[in-house]
Amino acid sequence: MDKTTTGWIYGLTGVVIFSGSLPATRVAVMDFDPLFLTVARAVIAGLLGLVLLLAFREKCPARSDIVSLAIVSLGCVIGFPLLTALALKHVTSAHSIVFIGLLPLATAIFGVLRGGERPRPAFWIFSAIGSALVSGYALAQGMSASPTGDLLMLSAVLICGLGYAEGAVLSRRLGGWQVICWALVLSLPITIALCVVTMPHTIDGIGGPAWIGLTYVSLFSMLIGFVFWYRGLAQGGIAAVGQLQFLQPFFGFALAAALLKESVSWSMLVVTIAVVGCVAGARKFAR
């Protein structure tokens, strides 16, 4: 199995894991404050990451890598989780998942800017079509429904795309799991302080589903998923493997319907199927 194929397998595994993030966040913010949820998941994952780094005696990153790690922390550890948690106060997880379809284009653009990749023109056509389908669907729902939620999701997508691309570049030197662990550890002083400040006064009113949601986003969304995702991006190419994110809405819709009993309209499914069809074309012309 060649390196590119292995990268796609790792990337797909990461996408499947990430697909549960928004439904789990939706459940968690029913009882947890969005800011507390953001920093709590980062603290839990960061402490586990610190244990892993110490256990395997990993060398500290070079000074030249600190800025890049800070970008990963800002985009993936703090920015995306916080913005999506805030957005899910205004929109359903099924609606928010549609915006994840914009991540492939955002990741590809930052892959060019930060990773030096140069996909062929046809790649951008397929990627743009997929993104246009997703954006068109969101606009068709009417921005008056929750413009705040939609704007928060768009901001989350942009900052996450930057974090993905920056982390993928670093993974080529440091390794996939090392990058996310160091990014989490780097943010610990801030996340621990915020966690203490925003901690609930009592846990009596917090239900079991919220704890399950917190556990999932802490272990899988914040740590395990990135181990596969960054390795996939590094081996298969940021722009190419990034197109697998078009599949995330499909998996997310299924989870939202099965676990949260949220309605998934036919229009959502049609848009998702059409967007998924863009993956094959984009992959063919990614390099």
TrEMBL record:
Coiled coil: none
Pfam families from the UniProt entry: EamA
Membrane topology (UniProt): Multi-pass membrane protein
InterPro entries in alphabetical order: AA-Vitamin_Transporters (IPR050638), EamA_dom (IPR000620), EmrE-like (IPR037185)
Protein's cellular compartments: Membrane
GO cellular component, one term: membrane
Domain annotation EamA: ranges: 6-129, 148-278
Alphabetized UniProt keyword annotations: Membrane, Transmembrane, Transmembrane helix
Principal cellular location given in the protein's record: membrane
Parts of the chain that traverse the membrane: 7-29, 35-54, 66-88, 94-113, 122-140, 152-170, 179-199, 211-230, 237-260, 266-286
Family membership noted in the UniProt record: Belongs to the EamA transporter family.
Protein name in UniProt: EamA domain-containing protein
Source organism of the structure: Rhizobium freirei PRF 81
